[in-house]
Amino acid sequence: xxxxxxxxxxxxxxxxxxxxxxxxxxxxxxxxxxxxxxxxxxxxxxxxxxxxxxxxxxxxxxxxxxxxxxxxxxxxxxxxxxxxxxxxxxxxxxxxxxxxxxxxxxxxxxxxxxxxxxxxxxxxxxxxxxxxxxxxxxxxxxxxxxxxxxxxxxxxxxxxxxxxxxxxxxxxxxxxxxxxxxxxxxxxxxxxxxxxxxxxxxxxxxxxxxxxxxxxxxxxxxxxxxxxxxxxxxxxxxxxxxxxxxxxxxxxxxxxxxxxxxxxxxxxxxxxxxxxxxxxxxxxxxxxxxxxxxxxxxxxxxxxxxxxxxxxxxxxxxxxxxxxxxxxxxxxxxxxxxxxxxxxxxxxxxxxxxxxxxxxxxxxxxxxxxxxxxxxxxxxxxxxxxxxx
Length: 389
Ligand SMILES: Nc1nc2c(ncn2[C@@H]2O[C@H](COP(=O)(O)OP(=O)(O)OP(=O)(O)O)[C@@H](O)[C@H]2O)c(=O)[nH]1
Ligand SMILES: [Mg+2]
Hints:
Blueprint: E1 8-11, E2 20-26, H1 30-37, E3 38-40, E4 54-59, E5 66-73, E6 77-83, H2 86-98, E7 102-103, H3 106-113, H4 117-126, H5 132-142, H6 145-158, H7 162-173, H8 176-180, E8 186-192, H9 198-206, E9 224-230, E10 233-239, H10 249-263, E11 267-273, H11 281-284, E12 292-298, H12 305-314, E13 319-320, H13 329-340, H14 355-369, H15 373-385
Parallel strand pairs: 1-7, 8-10, 8-11, 11-12, 12-13
Antiparallel strand pairs: 1-2, 2-6, 3-4, 4-5, 5-6, 9-10
């Protein structure tokens, strides 16, 4: 048996109940190791079957469990298809480990099958992409959009075209916030006084009943979240307890959590009640800063048309809605989307999508700005060739 690189076993199918699970054994010793435990129904050795042929048989130590084994690429890649329950997978992996296989998880296995670090990272990210739109952008990176862009920056640096390199870095970093949200939804937190209609708005925005609505102020006592997609962008909407200073300890705890939730928001939607005419400026305190705040005037259906016109004219920068009739909900969704994704990458555009990539690109930018182009080149080169741990 050769020993060019350690033979590894990885469960390819997700952990959990399923009809069939697949364990892949990769490495120069794959065939030898699998042969130690697999007994084909025909009695022939696995090595006698041509690559790609399906072999039916039994796995040693698993009474009554049939498995199918396929040798994929010569002898270096063998797939074992077994019953989808976790017991069968565990038994197979245990024997493979006893025979000298290194057990790795599927994320690590991608570094073996995709030596290009951006491709391996994109494959991992693709597995958790929540929408077609985010998957499409990640697929572009899998097909080397980011790699080509980093190469282009390197070439510019090598030609001492510093301003070109800086411009390219700037273009790339424009998409870093978007890139990091391809695998984690943007967090939009609704805040406001009790009873203004925050929970009703969440339900209207997601299009189904998620948050509990009540006529009595203080209905929401904790942070309730709902995941949705706005124009293909994954967004988590967080409903919070109405902010007021009450004695009820349960409510006070809800308000405390609401505050903490706002601190972790990408966007805050401050909701007011059209009939109350209260602008919760104090609520906006501490919300502004890095993130945007959209101010919504809700329950507009309760106003007379004349009063409504007055409100709309007086507050052109606010979004007028009715969670009951649906007025203004579409416009609010568009405003949320525009605030979170001001520029959408064109198909095939390079987008950094992992924290380490963004950090390294920022460092490279700083190095170039500081006149250390050679150091920046070194860093960019390491991004292209780094073997991920
Ligand atoms: N007419 C009208 N009623 C609304 C609207 N939005 C909410 N309501 C009503 O206002 C009341 C309070 O709504 P909620 O959505 O529970 O308000 P909230 O801001 O989540 O309240 P807390 O959880 O107590 O902070 C309920 O009776 C809703 O049906 C609206 O746009 N128009
Ligand atoms: Mg509520």
